[in-house]
């Protein structure tokens, strides 16, 4: 009996870790192309000497994060160029104003170039005055250039549909984050319960087959039926309770409309 409990706990823990990793994987996949909101392209003025001609390509993701690539000495920046970050992007840096991302790319970048050691750094600005001031201040340390935004491509434009936000809010019962957690727990139970029943039954039937004691087949079959009934109750009882509560209308005085819980959790 203790062995079966340990196996069940191991299965639950394994499923939990796999499911958690899948959720975490979705957050990490924010760097994938389908999560890019904007592409921003920058170049130095046409009269910049060839060795200092610089271009920068930045991807801005839908969560406000970013990634840039910098090409020095001519040519167009691409994902194979030097990977850089805008150092004052949504954070304070001593001596330079913070660039607050609000859905638009910085109008100007100041790039510090140290070709001798291959070191680069980038700062973002919304006006040329701040950009030029910072460029001149940094000139005593390294070669610095100012780049202007030449193209801002919207990759994944989010259409604003009338009433779309209202429809989403109609499905929220306990708060968006709480609803997501509860929905995740329900989905986890729907996966874990059948898997545990199947694996425990396989272990018992395999044990009987290996031992050659066929007398216990009936007892194991009875256990399987009981497990299936318990599993069905675990899965369908919450749905039945919510259905009856919705049907009764007892939650309407609290601002929860019929089918709202189903909408938020299933």
Can you give keywords for this protein?
alpha+beta; single chain; 266 residues; 6 helices
Describe it.
The longest helix has 36 residues, at 176-211. The protein has a 7-stranded antiparallel sheet, covered by helices on one side. The protein has helices at 2-28, 128-138, 164-170, 176-211, 217-248, 260-265; strands at residues 36-43, 54-61, 66-72, 82-84, 108-114, 119-125, 143-154. The protein contains 6 helices and 7 strands; from the N terminus they run H-E-E-E-E-E-E-H-E-H-H-H-H. The protein is α+β, with helices and mostly antiparallel strands and 266 residues long. The two termini are 35 Å apart. It is elongated.
């Amino acid at each position: 009996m203790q062995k079966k409990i340990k196996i069940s706990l191991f299965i639950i823990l394994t499923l939990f870790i796999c499911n958690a990793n899948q959720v975490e994987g979705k957050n990490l996949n924010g760097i994938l192309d389908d999560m890019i909101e904007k592409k921003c392209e920058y170049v130095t003025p046409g009269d910049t000497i060839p060795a200092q001609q610089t271009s920068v390509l930045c991807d801005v993701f839908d969560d406000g994060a970013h990634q840039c690539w910098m090409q020095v000495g001519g040519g167009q920046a691409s994902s194979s160029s030097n990977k850089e970050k805008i150092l004052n992007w949504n954070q304070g840096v001593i001596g330079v104003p913070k660039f607050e991302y609000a859905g638009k790319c910085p109008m100007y970048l100041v790039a510090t170039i140290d070709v001798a050691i291959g070191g680069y750094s980038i700062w973002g600005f919304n006006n040329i005055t701040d950009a030029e001031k910072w460029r001149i201040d940094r000139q005593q340390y390294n070669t610095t250039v100012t780049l202007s935004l030449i193209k801002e491509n919207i990759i994944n434009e989010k259409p604003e549909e009338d009433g779309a936000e209202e429809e989403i809010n109609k499905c929220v019962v306990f708060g968006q984050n709480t609803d997501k957690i509860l929905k995740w727990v329900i989905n986890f139970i729907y996966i874990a319960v059948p898997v545990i029943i199947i694996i425990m039954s396989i272990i018992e039937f395999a044990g009987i087959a290996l031992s050659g004691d066929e007398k216990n087949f009936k007892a194991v079959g009875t256990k399987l039926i009981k497990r299936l009934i318990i599993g069905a109750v675990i899965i369908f009882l919450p749905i039945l309770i919510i259905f009856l509560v919705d049907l009764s209308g007892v939650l309407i005085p609290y601002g929860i409309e019929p089918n709202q819980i189903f909408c938020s959790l299933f």
